[in-house]
Amino acid sequence: MKNATFVIAVLLLVLARPAEADFVQTYNTGFANGGVIPDGSRTGWTDTETVSVPGTSLNQMTDVSVTLNLSGGWNGDLYAYLVHSSGFAVLLNRVGVGTGNSVGYGNAGMNVVLNDAAGVNIHSYGGLSVPTGSYQPDGRNIGPLSSAATFSSTLPSALLSSFTGLNGNGSWTLFIADVSPGDVMTVNSWGLDIAAVPEPGSLVEGAVAVLFLGGVIGLYWLKGPKLQPQPC
Question: How many domains does the chain divide into?
């Protein structure tokens, strides 16, 4: 009976394997210009990192989050996007700019997680204090020098969902520009949190293990020791 219990426990562990593979990484060293974003320049600052996960292709990404830790400057000056393969997402685009506010929010920096499922878009975080916590990416796929009215009338379209279905391995490039002079901002760190369907080989391996262990249990019950009647 103990042997059967052990086999059943192993089978349950196999069945409980997560349906997704995950990759989480924060980047905070080796930045160009020490992470300082050129002030008042659309040339901007870039950082390219390579995702390479041994044993998995990170095939078919199902969800991507981006962390941004920035300090100094004027948040409303920033334009930032993320590129990987055919995916493109606008993370920040002059946050706060809209009808009645042509310069955006004046807070200095942020420490945020950007994910499409968050409740509030980063463009409208409020400006009362430095933003922290989770926000939707800006997603406004317009030039950062567009009019305030254009910002108000443009809906988010370049979101992190553009990476869904792509292979997560390969180069990821973060671009940030400070398009208005007067304040200097620094990138302290940024990061990726990727969920993806495991490579097909892993799924086949799991299915084979389930079938094998199921067969072992069946053989045990068919040919294993039977309970004997006990004398009264």
Answer: 1
The answer to whether the predicted template modeling score (pTM) of the entire model surpasses 0.85 is: no
Q: 108 lies in a domain?
A: yes
Quick one: average pLDDT of 63-72? 98
Structural domain includes residue 15: no
Phi, psi (deg, nearest 5) at residue 168: -75, -20
CA atoms within 13 A on the CB side of 193: 10
112, β-bridge pairs: 68, 133
In a domain, 170, yes or no: yes
pLDDT at residue 211 is higher than 60: no
197, 20 Cβ separation under 8 angstroms: yes
> Above 90 in pLDDT, residue 204?
no
Q: What is the mean pLDDT of the chain?
A: 84
The yes-or-no verdict on residue 210 having pLDDT over 80 is no
CATH of the domain at 93: 2.60.120.260
Do 45 and 176 meet the contact criterion of CB atoms below 8 Å apart? yes
* Range(s) of the domain holding residue 164: 20-220
CA–CA gap between residue 82 and residue 135 (Å, rounded): 16
Please, what's the b/e burial string for 41-80 (b: 16 or more CB within 10 A of its CB; e: otherwise)? eeebbebeeebebeebbbbbbebbbbbbbbeebbbbbbbb
Sign (positive/negative) of CA torsion 162, 168, 172, 178? Answer: positive
